[in-house]
Amino acid sequence: MTSRTLSLGALALAALASGAAIAQTKPAEAAKPAMEKCYGVSMAGKNDCAAGAGTTCAGTSKVDYQANAWKFVPAGTCASIKTPKGMGTLTPMKS
Question: Average pLDDT per run of 10 along the chain, which is 95 residues long?
């Protein structure tokens, strides 16, 4: 075989390999639902991250439904989440 034939064969193989890699992209990644921060709905130690005094990072809330601790929820559902202390909210509340 000539070097030109080998080069064309290598180029074709590389194109096929890259096409296969692109085709294997997970469809679930493209269809991830939008999420939003919802305050006042997490259980003690289950908040997603910092929100103010008493919550320095994920899992640091001290009480259930802490008003300034948030949890990620599907977009559009926060205000409909009912807790013993009221409804979830998109903005932090005073504890």
Answer: 60 60 57 90 88 70 90 96 96 82
